[in-house]
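Structure tokens please, single chain.
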Amino acid sequence: MTEIRSFYDEVGGRPTFEKLVAEFYRGVAGDPVLKPMYPEEDLGPAALRLQLFLEQYWGGPGTYSEERGHPRLRLRHQPFTVNPDARDRWLAHMRTAVDSLELPPLAEETLWDYLQRAAFAMVNTFDD
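Here you go.
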């Protein structure tokens, strides 16, 4: 019988998602539009939340839901102005992070497709 492996396992598990999130937040830390959206001075708590969410989404441990409940992504982002500029900046930093992983083409495409759809879904205003 063949063991079915999750996307999380296929791309390398926790180390892959740690690297993705670390690379992403390196960009966010210097971004004048995105950085103010994070309430903590240190981006560490936000990075951990994103890492746990992505790990769970892709078939890894369920720690995110155990600690925070249902993801409710749109609701959690509602207090912030997520306009097309913020979305595009988020995607630019995430593109750099995804590229740093050097995943096989199908895995890269699968991950990137999800991230793009998620970013577009978070837009909650077209105002500045």
